[in-house]
Amino acid sequence: MRFGPFCFYYPELLGQFENSSLSPFNCHWSEIHDFTPGTPIRDFFPLDVPESHQLHSFISQKVSTKPEYSVVPQTFGSRPAGLTDEKCLALVFSGWENAVALIAKAATKPDLRLVRTWQLQLTVENGRRLLQTMHYDAQLAKGPVICLEFNGPQVVPLLQSLTQGNEDFYVSSDSGVADRQLDILGGIVDMQMNSQ
């Protein structure tokens, strides 16, 4: 079996996500449970980065599978090959429009990859544990936070330059901090998923 990120668009899709209380940032396509661990043969693989194409039979209905039109951000997933050890966590406190804008800016940087995304409600307590500061308490109290994991050479300074001085964003201070924060975030996400 092969798996890949959701890559689909039609004009009503984002509204349907919102009406269903689903977030386009919670696409965990690469987090597949292997029910046969320890076997020498892998049963599943990630899809190669999809080629842009359109479903010709649906052109009249404005349906597209081009990644640049997808409502769900195109990620490389949690186990991609060829990534560097340099990681960065970016938090967006001000809604999906700013997250989409940051992703678009980051996409213009060579070798910078969006690995995973999440949208979740972070309590102030969990936010403090994650960020090791009280500076973002007011932003955390406003509502859901969009979390973006990026990877690539010089990823931290690149993302810091893209968000410089904007209180709607948090960017890890270095790759080691990002690695620790991603571990903490994984635990918070798991707790939220198990409590639902």
UniProtKB/TrEMBL annotation:
Residues 1-37 form the C-CAP/cofactor C-like domain. PROSITE patterns: C_CAP_COFACTOR_C. One of its GO terms (cellular component) is periciliary membrane compartment. GO terms for biological process: post-Golgi vesicle-mediated transport. This is C-CAP/cofactor C-like domain-containing protein. InterPro entries: C-CAP_CF_C-like, CAP/MinC_C, NDK-like_dom_sf, XRP2. It comes from the Eukaryota. GO terms for molecular function: GTPase activator activity.
